TrEMBL record:
The protein's name: OsmC family peroxiredoxin
Coiled coil ranges: none
A Pfam family the protein falls into: OsmC
Provenance organism: Phenylobacterium soli
Span of the signal peptide: none
Length: 121
């Protein structure tokens, strides 16, 4: 599959797949992690804050009895000379990253089917 100019493989662990790439849930989690890190870095740079390393990990889980059943857990590690007020503000900014908003607000999905139909029997 492709996303912009990049191509990559998505798969499932064995026995359902060949475990050749991340699962679709892992790709969504990675998107949230990347968006969070980029948003924090851009915000800190705009403010002139001494933000060093930004590390974001995201895991996902499903609980059919929960509402909503899908849950993403995000852990953010920040290095740099940041005071508590700056760290608190960056935590707020993480909640405003575009992918976080997409996941918490929801989105509509349109689908188009292409390719020739099978010949009539």
């Amino acid at each position: 599959m492709t996303a912009g100019p990049a191509g990559f493989v998505a798969d499932q662990p064995a026995p359902a797949g060949l475990d050749l790439g991340p699962t679709p849930h892992e790709i969504v989690a990675a998107g949230l992690a990347a968006c969070t890190a980029q948003t924090l870095r851009l915000y800190a740079a705009r403010k002139g804050w001494a933000l060093g390393r930004v590390e974001v990990s995201v895991t996902s889980s499903t609980d059919a009895a929960a509402d909503p059943p899908e849950h993403f857990e995000r852990t953010i590690s920040l290095d740099g000379e940041l005071d508590e007020a700056q760290r608190a503000r960056l935590l707020q900014i993480a909640e405003a990253c575009p992918i976080h908003k997409l996941l918490t607000r929801g989105a509509s999905v349109g689908t188009t089917l292409t390719g020739p139909p099978l010949p009539a029997a």
